[in-house]
Design brief:
By secondary structure, the protein is mainly alpha-helical. It has a single domain, classed as Orthogonal Bundle (ABC transporter involved in vitamin B12 uptake, BtuC), CATH 1.10.3470. Helix content is 76%, strand content 0%. Helix 2 crosses helix 3, helix 4 runs parallel beside helix 6 and helix 5 runs antiparallel to helix 6. It is globular, with a radius of gyration of 21 Å. The model has no long low-confidence stretch (mean pLDDT 83).
Length: 341
Amino acid sequence: MNSNAVRKSLTRQRQRLAVTIALLSLSVVALCLLALMVGTKFYSPQTVIQVLSGKTIKGASFAVGTLRLPRMLAGLLAGVAFGIAGSTFQTILRNPLASPDIIGVTAGSSTAAVFCLLVLGQSRSMASFAAVLFGLLISMLIYFLSKGGHFSGGRLILIGIGIQAMLNSVIHYMLLKASQYDVPSAMRWLSGSLNTIQMSQLPLLVVAVVLFGTVIVGLSRVLSILELGEHSAISLGVRTDLVRLLLIGSAVCLLAFATAVTGPISFVAFLSGPIAKRLVGSGLPHLIPAGLVGAVLVLTADFIGQFALGLKLPAGVITGILGAPYLLTLLIRMNRSGGTA
């Protein structure tokens, strides 16, 4: 292949990436606007824009500014966080099954939150703080147990699955022993819901998405090199241990802060990366598209759960319905191809 053909191919790939990001961004904007317009009462786009610009409109200011806006922002930010973090894990570990839902990262946050809500009787704010702290601690434990003499992605996945099973057993035990009056609040949190989100819960999530998302996207080129394998990355001059620790630490922080606000919205981190990769094509960075896909999934799932089925369902229930068939399909495909997706 001559140099002109290579340049044309790269140009086409970059154009495809730009078009994909533009279309996903438009989809996210449309879903955000829809989330602010639709509810018990419908408000026109003009009314929504007036409320967002600071104008006080009877009824609309409360419905849009107090109820719908925090819910929409939580879905947007959590979706971006889950999407980027999930894609990072799958790329580092070179395994499409390496989702935080599966390897135990979100289970740590869930256990701490349920313990605070059911055993200590603390507020949701304290449960969110505990979810962040314990999620980080469990993630560090999984990482260092998997390291051994050298880092092993397969070992990390197996240890994560084991710890997840243990923590899920602890959660079920607490639910069984708790007062029946306290269980609904914990179950709502565990289902991954945008209900009762308040604006005061969002500032830390905004900082986390901006800070740790920037770190991961900034290291996207190195992340692509890590995907080639340990020896190839080292031969290309990558300080693999340091870079991997930065990437995994940033991804875990994204997950912990997002989970603390919305609860563990299942399968978003698992689905976002593969969908983004199919849209963008192989050989190009897909972290930003994965974040946008995550936002689309969460916002769409929340809208379906609120209005499309005749009963109110949390976003996590809808994403679980979407994600489970994909997981089975992926496992069947890996089995037929001898272990690769």
